[in-house]
Amino acid sequence: MKPHLAPVEVPDPAALGQVQRLCDLAEPYADGPGTDALFAAAMAEANAWHARRSPLFAALLQEPAGTPAPTVGDGVRTPLVPAAFFKRHEVLSIPRDEVFLHLTSSGTTGQKSQMFFDEWTIRSAQRMVARIFDHYGWITPEQPVNYLLYSYEPAPALKLGTSFTDNYLCDFAPARHTTHALRHTGSGHEFDVHGCIAALHRYAEDDVPVRILGFPAFLYFTLERMRAMGLPPLRLPEGSLVVLGGGWKGHADRQIGKDVFYAEVTDRLGIPAERVRDTFGSVEHCVPYIECAQHRLHVPVWSRAAVRDTGTLRPLPYGEKGFLHLVSPYITSVPAQSVLMGDLASLHPGEECPCPLSTDWFTVHGRAGVSRNRSCAVAAAELMKGMS
To answer: Taking every annotated instance into account, which residue ranges of this chain make up the domain Acyl-protein synthetase LuxE (predicted)?
Structure first.
């Protein structure tokens, strides 16, 4: 069996049987009335699970019902918990001795989301990632690759979700060699742009594909530095892949459009645009959203998305911008099955994307408002200051 596709069992099969069935669906972009009904049943089970175990969520269910997300199902409650809530509060639906993993969403200072996972929750989320990678043919246990990770080099006390995710993605193809862009110095991390450039040149001469993972701003900065140094374009081996995540927070003034960025990757590294994919995710909502070949973030079968008005929080129709609302019953450790993100987004029907997938997709338009909270990407971006 391919890595991380092995069965995982919910904490209580009697109480969470529909959650188990939903998360066991192997086709990541299946849709239709059957999957919609299963999703609604699984959400009802998740709500009951958290209401019995979390005073916070039980209290939310006592409030007058708001307008449910239209994609979730009639009669299914989706009380909104802002992602920022987890920066100030630790809320669990399990005893602390059942916490399997503790991750945070920020750098070494600033407010951090504290998320606690039981084994089911984190293994279930990992299996979702594996199923999407398998869908695209990116699990290659017989094909070694070289990795360039635009993320934090592991350190003993590091609990950042981005570092955990990027290192986990290295399990899908055996590593011949790995380079971390954010090197651990013993007292923090530093961005090693020249080490990245040297690694790319070495990897271009090797005979195995390259996988570039992590923050897009760091990859762009590397390509920018290569151009400034007058270095000729490289041609990385066939089958190379770029999977990015984390956004450009903290360096919005240097952000360029995706089409321009992907064209730059193709020009400087020889990787075709369809093998350059962005992702969206967060430590508060670990369901993976990975671009299709047309660079749309389709919603997988294990979750649903809506967009809510920034003033009234009422659901908005397709195409309008508002707060991104993400829903999934997979999480049993924390009442985060219905999270209102701080991102502005618009939702679109599947048929508006020319790729074969039929599920809804969304576009992220940036963060809403101005916040003192620092995400992983913000903390990482600060390491780039003074480099240009």
So the answer is: 78-381
Element (H, E) at 309: none
| DSSP type of residue 264 | H
Instruction: Report pTM.
Output: 0.89
**Could you give the angle at the alpha carbon of 163 between the alpha carbons of 379 and 21, nearest 5°?**
125
Cα Rg of the chain (Å, integer)? 20
In angstroms, the CA 364 to CA 289 distance is: 11
Query: CB of 388 within 8 A of CB of 224?
Result: yes
Which DSSP helix (H) or strand (E) runs through 123?
Answer: helix 119-135
**Which residues are registered as beta bridge partners of 214?**
150, 244
Phi, psi of 338 (to 5 degrees): -145, 95
81-82 vs 241-244, strand pairing mode: unpaired
* Amino acid making up residue 331: I
Nearest to 218 by CA among 384, 352, 46, 374: 384
* Helix/strand/coil percentages in the chain, nearest 5: 30, 25, 45
Whether 60 and 336 have beta carbons less than 8 Å apart is answered as no
Q: What digits encode the pLDDT tens for the residues 262-302? A: 999 999 999 999 999 999 988 899 999 999 999 999 999 99
Bridging pattern class, strands 321-327 and 304-308: antiparallel
On the 0-12 / 13-18 / 19+ scale of CB atoms within 10 A, 266 is middle
